[in-house]
Amino acid sequence: MAKFQFFVKPNDERKNFTYLEMKTPSFIAEREQLLSMGFEVRDDCIHADSAASAVEKFRSDYIYAIEEYNNSTPIGALTQSVIYTYQYIRDKFQKK
Q1: What 3-state DSSP class applies to 54?
Q2: How confident is the model over 23-69, as pLDDT tens digits?
């Protein structure tokens, strides 16, 4: 899984952003360039299988992190499984 760092323009509400994969040899130099151009580091790094997945997680504004945290506890996992089961059953009966 790759690590991505996201950069945004200040006071732009995450509209104009870019990202870098942190394991590339040129990461430090590219990061310095973005910072000198006025970009700021936004949030923590995002672990994702692909750049598209990282962008989706970034745009969700870390909702996925809360879901992962909730699923890491027994009560959270149980609650989430009940919700998914309900949604599955509801969708199954709505299609008929």
Answers
A1: helix
A2: 999 999 999 999 999 999 988 888 899 999 999 888 887 666 677 77
